[in-house]
Design brief:
247 residues; 12 helices; mainly alpha
Length: 247
């Protein structure tokens, strides 16, 4: 939750303590989870190379390579960070490996939390794939993967997850050769409404990025409306704190 409030230094301290304690008692499951959460924190702090290195180092441990927690390390830790660096081949390898590893374990059917102690289910892995493909501007793949998990996303108990997938799809719609501006901005508005007065750093960052990417169409009424919604939503004290930490 320290990540969600944008306090990345505190999150790193928590993760380091959890990792050290789990190693002291030989608890591999918690060790890998803590490493995955540290990678998650580094990603939202914009430290993509470090986020990938952290997840890669944990997944490379001899006893960890086929562990269920490695699904998260690959999909949430490696693929998304590698996408930010533009390494398309490595992203595809990480996603493919995560999906193959899912087949070896009994994983949840629904859209699990991104920080769940459970193994990542295929829906959560594909949600991470969607985010990765957005960064690589693979718009067709974004829309295909998002369609595959749409029903599970809509039935998720997490408004943040529903918000984030909408923001990813909205960004992809703007990246198309023929941008669907109205649909993209409508999804962006829905994402903000879903979070209401409980913003998180991930939603803040992606809604801000969508606003920036819509800049070329700033005179379009739908873009103006979304911009006004975003400014109102991001004026909440919690969102202002995130804006400060991201600057």
């Amino acid at each position: 939750m320290a990540v969600n409030t944008g306090d990345f230094a505190l999150s790193a301290a928590y993760c380091t303590e959890a990792r050290d304690l789990s190693r002291e008692i030989g608890d591999l499951d918690t060790d890998l989870w803590a490493c995955g959460t540290l990678s998650f924190s580094l990603y939202y702090a914009g430290r993509y190379d470090e986020a990938d290195a952290c997840a890669a180092a944990a997944a490379a441990v001899e006893r960890a390579s086929r562990h269920a927690q490695c699904i998260r390390l690959l999909a949430n830790g490696r693929a998304r960070a590698l996408a930010k660096t533009g390494d398309r081949r490595a992203v595809e390898q990480a996603i493919g490996q995560a999906l193959r590893l899912s087949d070896l374990h009994e994983v949840p059917v629904g859209l699990t939390s991104c920080i769940s102690f459970e193994p990542y289910g295929r829906a959560r892995t594909l949600a991470n794939a969607v985010t990765s493909h957005v960064a690589l501007r693979n718009t067709a793949q974004v829309l295909l993967d998002a369609e595959h998990i749409n029903d599970l996303v809509e039935h998720s108990s997490s408004s943040w997850s529903r918000s984030l997938v909408r923001l990813d799809v909205a960004t992809a719609l703007l990246q198309q050769l023929t941008p669907d501006i109205d649909h993209a901005m409508a999804l962006g508005g829905e994402a903000l409404q879903l979070c209401g007065d409980t913003p998180t750093s991930s939603v803040y960052q992606r809604s801000r990025d969508l606003h920036e990417q819509a800049g070329p169409w700033r005179d379009h009424s739908a873009v103006r409306d979304y911009g006004e919604e975003f400014r109102t939503w991001s004026s909440q004290p919690a969102a202002l704190a995130m804006a400060s930490s991201a600057s």
